[in-house]
Amino acid sequence: MTDSRYLKRTIVKEVIASAFLNEDRALRIYLPPGYNEVLSYPVVYCQDGEEFFNFGRIATYANQLILDEGVEPFIVVGIEVDVKTRTAEYAPFGDRHEAYVNCIMREIIPFVEQKYRVRGDDRILAGDSLGGSMSLHLSLLYPGEFPRIISLSGAYYEESQDIIAREEDLGWLDTYMIVGLQENEYKTDHGTFDFVDLNRRTRDLLLDRGAKVHYMEKEGKHLWGFWQKELPDALLYFLTR
């Protein structure tokens, strides 16, 4: 049974008016137990923010890690997305991708860093599927700004691999990658892909360019039922080092 202390979570909902996307964008912000504006905190930015909170249970796990595992308190920012425009925003070939990148860098992050006590030099980007590849692309676009990536079954299509292949030195990058062995024939909105092969190829591209990669394959499908169980270890990987 889940400890009741883990369920006493502080989650703030914010909405920003994005000039780049020409629409409002909702955020869910988890504040750790004992949040104090005198202090400063590491921050985890999540693509698919609503799913990370609802299906990934990231706020509950964060409480558990902080209260029982001795992890330094941290903040989580979930960036919500409309499923109808998700591919257009997350995929590098999407027609809203550049606008979404600008929204994150020029609107969301400045808003969060002005209102909450996050450390700008202590960021983690997290995402599942296209959100995982989106997180990596954002990191490559702004080298050093996001040196730590959590990729849950990242959708590293050919376009994504080409972007990584153009890089020369990724010695500054540290990536936590996991993929399920039952994701070898996953149907997406633009084809069926072997996500295990895509992730293996991406791992090798990153390693060849000097990135540090913590890579795992486990029994699992392309579902939150798989990713949820892996999320605490992914957070521990970065937040206890």
UniProtKB/TrEMBL annotation:
What InterPro entries does the annotation carry? AB_hydrolase_fold, Esterase-like, Mycobacterial_A85_antigen
Which positions, given as ranges, span the membrane? none
Pfam families per record: Esterase
Highest taxon above the source species: Bacteria
Instruction: Spell out the coiled coil positions from the record.
Output: none
What PANTHER family does UniProt report for this protein, alphabetically? Answer: ENTEROCHELIN ESTERASE-RELATED, IRON(III) ENTEROBACTIN ESTERASE
- The name on file for this protein is Esterase family protein
Q: What is the lineage of its organism?
A: Bacteria, Bacillati, Bacillota, Bacilli, Bacillales
